[in-house]
Design brief:
This protein is α/β, with parallel strands linked by helices. The chain folds into two domains: 58 residues, Helix Hairpins (Orthogonal Bundle), CATH 1.10.287; 204 residues, 3-Layer(aba) Sandwich (Pyruvate Kinase, Chain: A, domain 1). It is 61% helix and 13% strand. The two termini are 32 Å apart. It is a peripheral membrane protein. Keywords: ATP synthesis, Cell inner membrane, Cell membrane, CF(1), Hydrogen ion transport, Ion transport, Membrane, Transport.
């Protein structure tokens, strides 16, 4: 049985831990508000841009003048996986879920005879994959969301991806990240960046099949517009994924620290109960010894 001193030390230790988790919860909650507002504000622009490019791509698909970012290389041999995680832990299953999805994708691609390259945006993703796929990691970017998601950081990543594509270092690029749903819910999402893949139409939207669509004439032509907008779309989609990942991280950390604070409170109550029972048992034992000694005299 632990002594009273050991119990006091443990209770004080858990109380200090509860103070830390409570402070981290409040910090994450304050960051979550800004990150959530930024993610929700960025969604309409990214979705509209994707739909506009999908309309343009449909009119030039299969033509000889289609941009390379739309037509692709014509092969499916080398895949670049862009993995977005956090630089720190203590955020529940935020990192583990997206790493699990990336690991499954890498395993399936390798089993299909594909060559895989991994670009890690976040230290936790690199640390998790390094144990099994260290040879596939071509680079790591840290501190992407240290001061919140910024377009400059996303644009740097996009330029790296575009440079690799122009150099013929991969055929298909896919980004894996956590999409923000709520403070307690994140959805692991895979999105193909290169070549351009039209966004899926939500099932809630009404079908427009059989309905005449307006015909637009573009100046300059569709090929020139796509050649200019497709690189911007890569940067925009990376930025949108960063916004979603940042909001998801703060929500997951707030939820995890809230659970940790509650668990610390429950442990303090249990330890306090054990402490009081142990103290009462020791007092009772001393009284019995005193009374027994007095009767012996």
């Amino acid at each position: 049985m632990a002594s009273l001193k050991d119990l006091r030390v443990r209770i004080n230790s858990v109380k200090n831990t509860r103070k830390i988790t409570s402070a981290m919860k409040m910090v994450a909650a304050s960051k979550l508000r800004r990150a959530q507002d930024a993610a929700e504000a960025g969604r309409p622009y990214a979705e509209r841009m994707g739909r506009m490019l999908a309309g343009l791509a449909a009119s030039v698909a299969g033509s000889s003048g289609a941009p390379k970012l739309l037509a692709g290389t014509g092969r499916d041999d080398v895949h670049l996986v862009v993995l977005m995680t956090a630089d720190r832990g203590l955020c529940g299953g935020f990192n583990a879920n997206v790493v699990r999805s990336a690991r499954n994708m890498i395993r399936d691609l390798i089993a299909s005879g594909k060559t895989v390259k991994v670009l890690c945006l976040g230290r936790k993703g690199r640390d998790a994959l390094r144990r099994e796929y260290a040879g596939l990691i071509i680079g790591t970017r840290e501190g992407m969301t240290r001061r919140g998601a910024e377009f400059g950081s996303a644009n740097d990543v996009a330029q790296t991806i575009l440079s690799m594509f122009d150099a013929g270092q991969f055929d298909v690029c896919t980004v894996i990240y956590n999409k923000f749903r709520s403070a307690i819910s994140q959805e692991v999402t895979r999105q193909q960046l290169v070549p351009f893949s039209p966004p899926e139409v939500p099932s809630s939207e009404p079908s427009v099949s059989g309905v005449a669509r307006p015909v637009y004439e573009y100046e300059p032509g569709e090929e020139e517009i796509l050649a200019d907008l497709l690189p911007r779309n890569v940067a925009m989609q990376v930025f949108s994924a960063l916004l979603e990942s940042d909001a998801s991280e703060q929500g997951a950390r707030m939820s995890a620290m809230d659970n940790a604070t509650r668990n610390a409170g429950d442990m303090i109550n249990k330890l306090t109960l054990v402490y009081n029972r142990t103290r009462q048992a020791m007092i009772t034992k001393e009284l019995i010894e005193i009374i027994s000694g007095a009767e012996a005299i």
